[in-house]
Amino acid sequence: MLGNRFYKVIRKNNLNLPMKIAILSEDASLYSTKRLKETGEARSHDIKVINYLRCYINIASHKHSIISLHQPLENFDAIIPRIGALRTFYGTAVVRQFEMMGVFSVNQSQAISRSRDKLRCLQILARHGIGLPVTGFAHDTEDIDGLIETVGGAPLVIKLLEGTQGIGVVLAETYQAAKSVIEAFRGLNANILVQEYIKEAKGADIRCFVVGDKVVAAMKRQGAEGEFRSNLHRGGKAEGIKLTPEERSTAVRSANAMGLKVAGVDLLRSNHGLVIMEVNSSPGLEGIEKATGVDVADKIIEFIEKNAATAKTTDRIKY
Ligand SMILES: Nc1ncnc2c1ncn2[C@@H]1O[C@H](COP(=O)(O)OP(=O)(O)OP(=O)(O)O)[C@@H](O)[C@H]1O
Ligand SMILES: [Mg+2]
Ligand SMILES: [Mg+2]
Q1: 0.90 surpassed by complex ipTM
Q2: 162 is in an annotated binding site
Q3: The pTM is what?
Q4: Does the residue 263 lie in any domain?
Q5: Atom of ligand 1 nearest to the CA of 156
Q6: Which whole-number Å values give the CA distances from 119 to 124, 125, 165, 272, 279, in the listed order?
Q7: Does some domain include residue 261?
Q8: Do 36 and 125 reside in the same domain of the chain?
Q9: Which of 260, 247, 250 is nearest to 220 (CA)?
Q10: Which ligand 1 atom is the nearest neighbour of the CA of 236?
């Protein structure tokens, strides 16, 4: 068996060699996992689905390893992390361990952690001058009036920082409703975000699927009748959409700012221009492939083929 470093040197000169790729996923039967596996195999790679929650990590200065089902995971060229929203802590530790072993990860562990925290995500995007909805953050403020004022009063959107699939995202139509919801979240000791309501988006948002430096597919998601949240899990419907050049470049810039190579960038068309709502590090493939007909899994495998041998595993973003 060739050592990883030696193998990489050979690969640099011959990018068509089959690779050994691990998909880190809790469930091999998920649509995204299945599609990545079958596409990778169709391109002649050896694809293993590994349940990262079942792995254990051996940390030593000279020989780091990861053990799954009693076997050390060795000689992988690349990993595709598909870390569940509730598994960020352990999932990113496993990704980090692969990085320490010199394995190329489609998304770096630090970038995944960064994107999982909505506050950190919006702070990074703001720092890069990317358009955002006017947003306030709070934990236990006594000054609820001031917080509501910062986003221009009701109607406004209140979000739990750790929410996903639209759960924990509330539209408060009146000042009184906003105040009660903020007080309720405060009582639960939760971190919250208060955001201007982009009414003109009319319950729709746009998901841009970024791979490398390109948007490979984009869809418009429209919320169910009477629902302001467009999430497919909340009954939204999706269709392919043509982006403006500005939307394309902003989606790519947002993924870059987060340090993500594969990302689902969600944007809204507002009266004051386009605004980014969030950047997801394990975007699902089912909705986007079905709505657009684009083979997104193939784009991801192709990205690995082009980058696994030459990429550096060190993450240069320092915050
Ligand atoms: N400020 C806003 N103005 C208008 N609509 C909004 C706003 N914020 C969120 N929405 C709607 O609510 C949906 C859910 O919000 P958001 O994406 O922030 O939540 P989430 O729980 O993180 O979802 P995801 O599963 O995409 O991670 C959005 O897709 C959008 O349609
Ligand atoms: Mg989210
Ligand atoms: Mg979202």
Answers
A1: yes
A2: no
A3: 0.90
A4: yes
A5: 1
A6: 9, 10, 17, 21, 11
A7: yes
A8: no
A9: 247
A10: 31
